[in-house]
Give the backbone structure.
Amino acid sequence: EDQVTQSPEALRLQEGESSSLNCSYTVSGLRGLFWYRQDPGKGPEFLFTLYSAGEEKEKERLKATLTKKESFLHITAPKPEDSATYLCAVQDSGNTPLVFGKGTRLSVIA
Amino acid sequence: ETGVTQSPTHLIKTRGQQVTLRCSSQSGHNTVSWYQQALGQGPQFIFQYYREEENGRGNFPPRFSGLQFPNYSSELNVNALELDDSALYLCASSGSGEQYFGPGTRLTVT
């Protein structure tokens, strides 16, 4: 059974204080690992897809990396508008459903 | 390009009632997936429709049912509502790649 564990559950940062969020996963055959951002009461917003170990993707202050067992979402010099819950999900081979972690709730304080 | 839309935004129902939630998929997408997200949890897969056929189902009872129409829009129906059905219901559409989520429907069962 595919599993995703995210840590920490919550993270509080000062504006400009860089950090990383972790997503550990077990899957029989990884088709893709996905990162989403979710604001309270809203639907998840797609950020990145990673397909193979060693792959990296960047978008503004965010950079996602992937190994065979985990993924990291690095946040560089965060701003208050980066405050949200960040969700990680994996997809097994084929057009199978996403399996999500519980998310990391990020708060960035000015 | 039109994104994923869902209706209604909010809904309050009484235990035992029935509810129908609606989703319009993103232009060009032929697959719709439905997820249930309880407070503080990651989304949980309910079922998926591909070209009007159910194409996978999560661990949800038969009182959760769905439809997909020729224009790829979709409905989620829940019968005999229970208090634990209170959640954010998310619809995601996909083509051959990433899943893009709608804003969700917040269902409250009293």
Notes: The CA atoms of residues 11 and 106 of chain A lie 5 Å apart. Chain A touches chain B through 22 residues (CB under 8 Å). Chain A is about 0% helix and 60% strand. Chain A has a mean pLDDT of 95.
